[in-house]
Amino acid sequence: MTGRTFVTVGAGQTAAVAARTLRRRGFDGRIVLIGDEPHAPYQRPPLSKEFLSGTDTLESLQILPEDWRADNDVEVLTGAEVTRVDPAGRRVELAAAAPIQADAVLFATGGEPRSLPVPGPRPDLVHYLRTVDDAIALQRSLAAAGRLTIIGAGFIGLETAATARGLGIEVTVLEAAPVPLGSIIGQRLSAEMVRIHRDNGVDIRTGIAVSNLQTTADGVVLDCGDSGRLEAGAVLIGIGINPNTAVAAASGLQVDDGIVVDAQGRTSIPHIYAAGDVARRYSARAGRHVRFEHFDNANKQGAAAANAMLGRDAVNDDAPWFWSDQYDHNFQLLGEATDRTVIRGNPEANDFTAFYLDGDLLRGVFGANRGEDVMVGRELLGRRIERGVLEDEDADLWELVDAEEVAS
């Protein structure tokens, strides 16, 4: 044993990947993951899908099973609250336990849902979906109410809508913006998402902002301004998350819509790092600091930060990528959306790819049931490609990759 101790503040996906990476890279010191939930690290993406529908269990979501933790000597403290990290001595202070002295600390505190006031006698009818306990509470509420109103048509809201419809629940989705996901996938693709959900029986209403909600003895009343009042059996609020930076701020770290870190995940204080949803990391590719709230980012940045803690230069600056499963469809977004979109395939059949161009420069790819196109798009990002080639279903895009490799 080296005698060194590495601690993560947070015990989710990012922390779990960091722990695995440290052991794979040969670190034989003490590893402690500290989480405020009562559960060991688990995957969050299935919460709105397989777990909510009942096909996955908490055990199947485990990232670091108990036997792996025992074999690899990784400690997980659950239900623990970190109050601050002493920046000088790197002492991790806890609310109800002795402090832990650390040689390196990784902040992986994620985020928490943006909330709305919930007055009235039945706050149990209003839900968020961030933790496994949130998902269990929503399951029970759906079974009792039989109908669900979702505030916010982001990916969590739309995934939950799809899952609820599969369970036979009546679903209404309220979105304040003119179209859902417009700033993420563009207006044209947003219209296709709306069509898919309406085809599956979801009542999607856009341009509706909920100004107030009030629980009653048997339901929830939503005040939708000029659109009137709406009664709901149960409500899910899905209007985004805020990065959990309170402990970082109390520890003297630089905070600006997340914990500010360099390309390797290093904070403004030596030997303290941050990664995942909470980290605002410098990206040379983007030319600025960025913060992503995706599963893939949690994995890659958790591994990158672990390498940095070991003194290894392993910067990851890949284009952002994430996926969303809704009904029988798989959607993937790589890179970024632009105003110029080229469609390959048949949107009405839910079998298409959208290529986002800046002039003729490929900036991003959105695939509906076309993972192969997204894979080749990853190799072509930043390349200049003729619109006609992208539109042509008979054109083999992998040949463009091969041609580039031969040329180089």
Give your account of this protein's structure.
There is one protein chain. This protein has 408 residues and is an alpha/beta fold. It has 3 domains: 5-112 and 241-310, 3-Layer(bba) Sandwich (FAD/NAD(P)-binding domain); 115-237, FAD/NAD(P)-binding domain; 328-406, 2-Layer Sandwich (Enolase-like, domain 1). The chain is 28% helix and 29% strand. It has 13 helices and 26 strands. The strands form 7 sheets. A 5-stranded parallel β-sheet has the order 3-2-1-7-19. The longest helix is centred in the last third of the chain and has 15 residues, at 295-309. The radius of gyration is 23 Å and the shape is globular. The N and C termini lie far apart (46 Å). Residues 7-302 form the FAD/NAD(P)-binding domain. Its cofactor is FAD. Residues 321-400 form the Reductase C-terminal domain. Pfam families: Pyr_redox_2, Reductase_C. Keywords: FAD, Flavoprotein, Oxidoreductase.
